[in-house]
Write a structure and sequence with these properties.
With 437 residues, the protein is α+β, with helices and mostly antiparallel strands. Helices cover 53% and strands 8% of the residues. The strands form two sheets. A six-stranded antiparallel beta sheet has the order 3-8-4-5-6-7. Strands 1-2 form a two-stranded antiparallel ribbon. A hairpin with a 2-residue loop joins strand 5 and strand 6. Helix 2 packs antiparallel against helix 7, helix 2 runs parallel beside helix 8 and helix 7 runs antiparallel to helix 8. It is elongated and about 95 Å long.
Length: 437
């Protein structure tokens, strides 16, 4: 066995568009450097080729895939914006084309020289309009306070001309009625040409954005396939490690890669659920089996907890629920017992039978609780078995106390110091965790 050489796995420099993004990027970069340094220390004395494989999988999971996921998110958002702009431009074009059709129909009926402004004012005079919006128009145009006054004011041709001019001025738009029909038709046709050009440009931009988003998704999928291959290869080599620290490092890296695979599967299932329509409404979230088994080997043992599992019907909703809440039925002093009590202190209802800590994310949707990867104060964080020191069989659960940018603080029981002992941790990279709201 030889000492692992310091292989060069470059960490990309922190880049961002805003100061907040820059701070988050720098924190992520610092966390990446620290994580790699810890792995190198644990792999001291390990065969260089095997150490390289462990470090490469770590870099792939925590750096390359994470960066690719961010690019996919940004590309999807850009594609959605471009598509919305293209649809808006197309709608404006369609509206202008409809205006042209309507005006052509009017010209066909009454000719190009028909005075629309004169006809509109005369129509006001003919109708009984007390208390209507049109009455307000009369008052503004002529100063009249009644239909009689208005009709009297119309007796003079000079007054009629003055009223038409004022009306046209108050409604001054690109295509106002002060134009004759020929002028308006020409203006509409010019507007259609401009809108057509814009619509074509927006449509092309939308297609480009969609293609870019698909390319980013393809690259992310390729990285995940590469990660799966590396994970499978490394899994067969872990047993050859003599050092307990090295085995812990390898299993930690394998678990992180597996969590990313779980997340990917979860996202696909959520997208499929969102695409389904049930009785005219979007389908509700349901419990799924996205792979909550996890590694059964304990990395750093923390308090596992018993607890019973049980499901009852419910719809997906917001934070907390009274559905299935019959009091704290979890084993006293364990992490689940604390999570239930702490959420109750915060005014958040929790079902009594969500199971072991590592099962909460899977059981919660059937009670109507929302489960996602977004930390929120009061949310329970459900650790998979072996994840971040969770028990290799039961997993672990904690409660989010606060969220600060790309980090969040949790409170937990029986993680350090034994039953009934509450401790606190700060975590990063929320995308690798499941939060029960």
């Amino acid at each position: 066995m030889c000492t692992a050489a310091a292989i060069a796995i470059p960490v990309a420099p922190a880049q961002a568009d805003t100061y907040s993004d820059l701070v988050n990027a720098r924190n992520a970069q610092s966390a990446s450097v620290q994580r790699e340094a810890e792995l190198r220390a644990q792999l001291d004395g390990v065969n260089q080729e095997l150490a390289d494989k462990i470090l490469e999988l770590n870099d792939l999971t925590n750096n390359k895939i994470a960066a690719a996921q961010e690019k996919v998110t940004q590309a999807n958002e850009a594609a959605a914006t471009a598509q919305s702009e293209a649809e808006t431009a197309s709608s404006r074009l369609a509206a202008a084309q409809k205006d042209k059709q309507d005006l052509e129909a009017q010209i066909e009926k009454t000719g190009k020289d028909y005075d629309d402004a004169h006809a509109a004012v005369a129509q006001l005079a003919r109708e009984e309009m007390h208390g209507s919006d049109a009455s307000d128009v009369m008052s503004v145009v002529t100063g009249a306070t009644s239909t009689t006054d208005f009709v009297n004011s119309m007796q003079s041709r000079d007054a009629l001309s003055r009223n038409e001019a004022n009306a046209a001025s108050s409604a001054a738009t690109t295509l106002n009625t002060s134009m004759n029909r020929s002028e308006r038709l020409a203006a509409i046709e010019k507007q259609i040409a401009t809108l057509k050009t814009k619509a074509d440009e927006k449509s092309a931009a939308a297609q480009t954005s969609a293609a870019t988003a698909q390319s980013e998704r393809d690259q992310l999928e390729q990285l995940r396939q590469e990660g799966e291959a590396k994970r499978n290869e490394l899994s067969e080599l872990v047993t050859s490690l003599d050092s307990q620290a090295a085995q812990q490092a390898a299993k930690s890296v394998l678990l992180q890669s597996e969590v990313d695979s779980f997340n990917s599967q979860y996202q696909k299932e959520q997208a499929e659920a969102a695409a389904q329509v049930n009785n005219g409404t979007q389908g509700s979230t349901s419990a799924n089996d996205g792979g909550g088994g996890g590694d059964t080997t304990t990395i750093v043992p923390s308090g596992g907890d018993g607890g019973n599992s049980g499901n009852s019907g419910g719809n997906s909703g917001g934070q907390g629920t009274s559905n299935g809440d019959y009091g704290n039925a979890y084993v006293a002093g364990q992490c689940t017992w604390w999570a239930y009590n702490r959420r109750q202190q915060l005014g958040i209802g929790t079902p009594s039978y969500l199971g072991n800590g590592g099962d909460w994310w899977r059981s919660a949707p059937s009670y109507g609780l929302r489960v996602d990867h977004n930390p929120e104060a009061g949310a329970a964080i459900s650790f998979l078995p072996g994840q971040d020191g969770a028990d290799g069989t039961y997993g672990h659960v904690a409660v989010v106390e606060s969220v600060n940018g790309n980090s969040f603080e949790i409170s937990e029981m029986n993680a350090a110091g034994g039953p009934y002992v509450v401790s606190y941790r700060t975590l990063y990279n929320s995308g690798q965790y499941w939060f029960v709201h």
